[in-house]
Amino acid sequence: MKCFITGANGFIGFRLTERLSAEGHTIKCLVRSPQKFQELSHLQGVSSVVGDLDDTEALAAGVSGCDTVFHMAAYAKPWSKDKTVPFRVNMQGTENILKASQRAEVRRFIFTSSAAVIGPSPGKDPIDEDYVRTIPFFNDYEKTKSLAEKLVREYSQGGMETVIVNPTR
Questions:
Q1: Which of 74, 85, 120, 130 is packed most tightly, with the most Cβ within 10 A?
Q2: pLDDT for 105-161, tens place per residue?
Q3: Which helix (H) or strand (E) element contains residue 47?
Q4: 64 phi, psi to nearest 5 deg
Q5: Is the dihedral angle over the CA atoms 60, 66, 68, 69 positive or is it negative?
Q6: Whole-model pTM?
Q7: Other C-beta atoms within 10 Å of 164: how many?
Q8: Are 78 and 141 in contact (CB under 8 A)?
Q9: Can you point out the beta strands (E) in the chain?
């Protein structure tokens, strides 16, 4: 597999990159700075693309030649002094990487969202991703991840194979 990973320096992304490298896959990682890539640079088959989710040229270079994209990068804080940041990173960034993936004819797009999108269980019974949330979102992180999921579903309806995962914090 040839893949592109956003968020490779994060908790889950780092471990995913290690695992994919150990399995012999070719991996390109989007990194904002070469210094942050140092811990991953020694892994077999792993290279970096310097940029961020606003950098459409870096995203195009990242997805080029890849069959799978793991989009894990996000603004994960529950709030920001600058209210535009969660929307720019989590929504616009997701749309930017979806567009680049579609243009490059990426086969599979895997989006890491959050269980926070689903919301708390209203009672004692557990809920799953089919549960329809009935309460408002608690913060911009939850709201923007939900809106990003909608974007991913739209691209799925357009023919791109997509997967949405909702890990807990």
A1: 74
A2: 999 999 999 999 998 888 898 888 888 898 999 999 999 999 999 999 999 998 899
A3: strand 46-50
A4: -55, 125
A5: negative
A6: 0.95
A7: 17
A8: yes
A9: 2-6, 26-31, 46-50, 68-71, 108-112, 161-165
